[in-house]
Amino acid sequence: MLCCGLIIERAERESIPVPLIGVSVQARIVDLVAEVTIEQRYVNKENQPIEAVYLFPLDEGAGVSKFTAEVDGRVIEGVVKETEQAKTDYDEAIKSGHSAFLVEEKLPDVFKAKVGNLAPGSGAKIRLTYVTELKVEGKEIRFYLPTTIAPRYIPPTDKSSTAADLATIKYSTESNYQVDFNATVQMASAITEIRSPTHKIAVTIETLSISLNMGHYDSTICRAKPKSPKGTTALMLSLVPSFKLTEQKTELIFLVDRSGSMGGSGINQAKQALQLFLHSLPLDCYVNIAGFGSSYKELFPASRKYDESVLNLTKQHVDSIDANLVGTEIFHPLETIFKKPSIEGYFRQIFVLTDGEVSNADEILGLIRRQNGQARVFALGLGSSASHYLVEGMARAGNGTALFASLEERLEKKVMQQLQDSLQPALSDIKIKWDGHEETEQKLATANAVPVQTEKTLMGFG
Description:
- The protein is of the alpha+beta class and 462 residues long.
- The chain folds into two domains: 5-153 and 177-224, Immunoglobulin-like (Sandwich); 244-423, Rossmann fold, CATH 3.40.50.410.
- It is 19% helix and 37% strand.
- It has eight helices and 28 strands.
- The strands form six sheets. It has an eight-stranded mixed beta sheet, with no helix packed on it. Strands 19, 20, 21, 22, 23, 24 and 25 form a seven-stranded mixed beta sheet that branches. Strands 2-1-5-9-8 form a five-stranded antiparallel beta sheet.
- Helix 3 (265-278) links the parallel strand 19 and strand 20.
- Helix 3 packs antiparallel against helix 4 and helix 6 runs parallel beside helix 7.
């Protein structure tokens, strides 16, 4: 875990975290959108002015809408500028002895700001506001608050500037602060349950307010009964149409992260998920299991027809796997699977189980997009620090679905949801007709477009 927050960077010496004296989070959740404001309070206990770096993780796809800092009662508000001009203005402010901030996105899910000229004994309040779309998992809506930056594995072949930046970051396993979290929830439908799989929460039903104290991670799920949305000044509409689709025959390949970071609870959770998958497979399918780390190992040279004998072999193999393959090399295993000859009449579905944080995520996503719909990719992110950018990106690029599970969550519903989704054919050449508007058409390079026969839904089996 990265010692994220405000950090003093020193040339050729270990970074020093600026003491964090308090954190508060305010979230306003309205249907499928959340606006989150994070305030962190620091004090400079050094005997001289410091230039520090502020780091904080963001939800994948979140948009930062506001950034302000208060130093000794003086408020500094962020203004959007061209990159080079912003750097020039920051340098000039520092040379003049003024407090200044330089904000940039170093990674798709990491927010970075330079804080200059924080005087000895001075306190600083840093406020970050972002807006994000919530995730839908079956009949549940998940709000996720990222508060850690996990170390990213850098493959030896990754010579990018991003990899170079990541190599300079120092990480810590300590988390000695507490986060005060409060959320208000407004739904257009009745809320039947609000729960957190990781922390105890207090819920005030009258105001639909959630409050809790947490250490370094939280995940809160709201479940609601669908109703017609009420009109407001803004509208978000989610459509889940039903079609008659033929159930497809599948080749199911389970690609399991066996890198060192999966050790302990992570690999145990992956093994539990695999056992659930194996006991739930349809009779007429092909199956294989592969593990990856710095090397790549397959159970079978080619997928085998699922029967009792294959079930027993796969179960024994799952019991024997461990997190003993060192690094997190995802690119080569996916490339190898994509190059395998297809099985006539059976559509390939790849399930990636990982806690992965890697520097070459964009390279991996590009590979999946280039495979031209010959397979679909589903991803299950394990643990609180799994990269949402990587996991959701793989599923999006591979026309599959992504789900996440903290180490405290039960996996039955998530496994069944993903398995059912994989048996549901993907659609292409989608057209939407809206009265009063021109017809829109979305052509997707998806796999497994099939004849329309048996009724299912786009979100999986009903």
